[in-house]
Design goal:
globular; mainly alpha; 332 residues; 0% strand; 14 helices
């Protein structure tokens, strides 16, 4: 792909990504057990509170669509940052253990200490942070290379997963409360959940834009980055913590939604290249569009059953992950 083709693709991606996001949000607001026309949706959003339709849009669908948008954006940006600083296109918050840290904290809150279930969002958020720090410390040996971080992350992911399963076996009488959350979903999400998650998500997404320059420099390799004045280890550590913030925010409100951080950034990178000036914003919009669209499909396509969005995303993401592995093997 020459420079002109890359620039054309970047321009098209920057134009089409917001359009796809708007269409996904419109799809999420109009489709459901009670179809509502786009004209009615527009009138309701402008303040015309129609009785039944207004309640459905403002109290049920709109907060769910906005939460899906934030969750998708956070996971996609988190994956994009991790793939860059670890020099591994297969890195993902769910694969290297960052999401598992939040998952374990949430399982403890819901299964072991149900009386403190109100602390679930904060616990998931803190668990992701602690997992990220643990991964980095285990990988540190006069520096933390991307390969060491990935290997430490895979090990931590397996350990935390085993701990989650252990807690669910010991407290088997309370497992039903945690299973929907482990599947990942937005069912029952309201303005309350949005109010909790939005500040952390918006702060994390804003900080991610400040990470564009150091992330691009790290793509050149640590030695080249240092020659250009970047403290490579410090920058990598801060970007990993930022990715943990974004993943923890998503996990706290949506559960263990997987593969968004893997599929979206990698697909965008294949289309427009790895320059974070374009990769990060397009991944942000693409992740939001994917989760909103998939969540709407999960609650409408299988009516009267509402499928957790995490299951549907896994059905899409797992084959894509196998394709990436196959493609990398052929390339090697």
């Amino acid at each position: 792909m020459n420079k002109q083709q890359r620039n054309t693709r970047r321009t098209l991606a920057c134009i089409l990504a917001p359009i796809l996001l708007l269409l996904a949000c419109l799809y999420g607001l109009t489709y459901g057990s009670v179809p509502i026309s786009p004209g009615e949706v527009w009138s309701i959003l402008l303040g015309d509170r129609l009785e039944t339709s207004g309640l459905i849009i403002m109290d049920l669908r709109l907060p769910r669509v906005l939460i899906g948008l934030l969750v998708g954006a956070c996971l996609a940006v988190s994956g994009a940052l991790l793939q860059g600083v670890m020099s591994n296109p297969l890195a993902d918050p769910g694969i290297i253990g960052v999401s598992a840290g939040g998952g374990l904290a949430a399982v403890i809150a819901m299964v072991v200490l149900p009386q403190y279930s109100y602390l679930l969002p904060a616990g998931a958020f803190l668990g992701s942070f602690l997992a990220a720090i643990m991964i980095y410390l285990l990988a540190w040996d006069s520096g933390a290379s991307p390969m060491k971080i990935v290997l430490a992350g895979v090990a931590i992911n397996a350990l935390l997963g085993a701990a989650m399963n252990g807690f669910m076996v010991v407290f088997s009488d309370r497992v039903q409360a945690v299973l929907p959350w482990l599947s990942g979903g937005l069912s029952g999400r309201s303005w309350h959940h949005l109010g909790f998650a939005a500040p952390y998500a918006l702060i994390g997404l804003a900080l991610s834009l400040l990470a564009i320059k150091p992330a691009n420099l790290l793509l050149l390799g640590d030695d080249s980055a240092r020659l250009l004045g970047l403290k490579a280890e410090v920058s990598r550590f801060l970007i990993i913590l930022l990715a943990a913030l974004l993943a923890g925010t998503a996990v706290s409100v949506a559960g263990l939604v997987g593969f968004v951080g893997l599929v979206v950034p990698h697909a965008v990178r294949l289309l427009i290249g790895g320059d974070y000036r374009f990769l990060l914003p397009v991944s942000m919009l693409g992740g939001g569009a994917l989760v909103v669209f998939t969540d709407t499909a999960a609650r409408t396509w299988f009516d009267p059953v509402e499928l957790p969005v995490g299951i549907l995303l896994a059905g899409v993401g797992a084959p894509f992950f196998l394709y990436l592995l196959r493609r990398r093997r052929l390339t090697s």
